[in-house]
Specification:
The protein is of the alpha+beta class and 408 residues long. It contains 14 helices and ten strands.
Length: 408
């Protein structure tokens, strides 16, 4: 019986080769589109999340601002100022903070030999390395002796190191920052960072101890500070604790959002995840509609097949075949055509993904791969469309009047 089924299926497919090719290509293209769209959507989401974490993990950035509300006898418009000591002291007063660092920032002219650039110079604390993923590829980051002795040492981004030193070894070399000599103690490991909250990205930045920065340029109050909570600590709750403590300490209204500008990375990542969830659903819908067009083609060809095999159906019914058997036969043939086209499309998408130049596109869209969930979703979509495409021709075949069929 199974051999007869496949023999009839093969006969119907080769009888009209052009019609068969067009039908199968519709299903194949639909499957191809669904798999590729979801694979790229998933990889773009992962790469975007990875790139955003290049700036740091669980990062919160705070900029002291100006009050916009009267409070405690103070008029609005008062600037909120924090010293590095006050910033570092927050760790003892606010439970849940794991790392914290003051931050100063200015644009300065750097020179080494004949190479000269104007770039961002940051004065930072010891925990900045853990906060901002400024991981050394060569040498080291700033240490406690550098901070205590206000050493003129610096840690530089990998792009800046290439621009200044070309093929030379940067660690141990001297560079001039506005005419002041600094020794390079480390070079940052390459990382992807799509944006920054001020100045150059870390790959093109020079980092020095905040004590050295303050001594050189006379800055007493921080431009901003960065911190992160322990894993599992609610970032929104930590932000509320920070506002509550600083509003008492600096005497401003806790609801005065302009007194402290806060950027919370966790909230941003949540928004990005929601966006990509909606984006992937949209891609799946677009691909499913493409696949649905192929299903309409299968339904059309099966309706034609039923017309061509009307006499055969009449003979089967006349010799005792049940209408349920006729229904099952034509429904199975429709489903097999859908599955054949789907398998071809799945294989084509897999082959294309395997030959993509992964290293060239990794930093932009990640590495598209077929997620097992994508495969399961595609199979389910194929089965649904196959059922829809096969039920109408199968019911028409099963409802054939055997007497009229034999006369035709």
């Amino acid at each position: 019986m199974i051999a007869t089924f496949f023999r009839n299926l093969f006969r119907d497919l080769v009888r009209q080769p052009l019609r068969t090719v067009l039908t199968l290509s519709g299903v194949m293209w639909g499957t191809f589109a669904v798999v590729l769209l979801l694979a790229f959507g998933n990889s773009v989401q992962k790469q975007s999340m990875k790139n955003m974490r290049g700036m740091g993990d669980r990062l919160v950035v705070v900029w002291p601002g100006r009050t916009t509300m009267e409070y405690g006898g103070f008029t609005k418009g008062r600037r909120i100022r924090l010293t590095p000591g006050q910033v570092l002291g927050l760790k003892q007063h606010i439970r849940g903070i794991e790392h914290i660092s003051p931050e100063f920032r200015r644009s300065r002219r750097l020179r080494h030999g004949r190479e000269e650039f104007i770039i961002t110079v940051r004065g930072v604390g010891l925990e900045y390395e853990a906060l901002r993923n400024t991981i050394p590829a060569k040498g080291r980051f700033i240490n406690s002796l550098d901070k205590e002795r206000r050493r003129r040492v610096c840690f530089i981004g990998d792009t800046l190191a290439k621009d200044l030193f070309k093929d030379e070894e940067p660690v141990g070399k001297r560079i001039m920052v506005e005419g002041v000599p600094f020794n390079v103690v480390g070079v940052m490991k390459k990382k992807i960072q799509p944006s920054n909250y001020g100045g150059n990205r870390d790959t093109q930045t020079l980092f020095m101890p905040w004590t050295t920065f303050s001594a050189l340029y006379g800055d007493k109050y921080v431009g901003n500070f960065v911190f992160s909570g322990y894993p599992g600590v609610d970032p929104a709750g930590l932000e509320r604790k920070l506002r509550r403590y600083l509003s008492r300490r600096m005497e401003f209204h806790r609801d005065d959002t302009d007194a402290l500008f806060v950027w919370n990375q966790s909230q941003m990542l949540t928004q990005v995840n929601v966006f990509f969830l909606a984006f992937n659903i949209f891609l799946a819908i677009i691909g499913s509609f493409t696949l649905l067009v192929g299903g309409v083609g299968v339904a059309s060809i099966m309706m034609v097949v039923v017309e061509e095999r009307t006499r055969e159906i009449g003979v089967k019914l006349a010799v005792g075949a049940k209408r349920r058997q006729i229904l099952t036969q034509f429904f199975s043939e429709s489903l097999m055509i859908i599955i054949m086209g789907g398998v071809a499309g799945f294989v084509a998408a897999s082959l294309l993904l395997s030959v993509l130049p992964a290293e060239k596109i990794r930093d932009y869209v990640g590495v598209p791969q077929i997620n097992p969930l994508v495969g399961v979703a595609t199979v389910l979509i194929l089965l649904v469309i196959g059922t829809i495409a096969g039920i109408a021709p199968a019911r028409k075949a099963a409802s054939t009047n055997p007497i009229e069929a034999l006369r035709s």
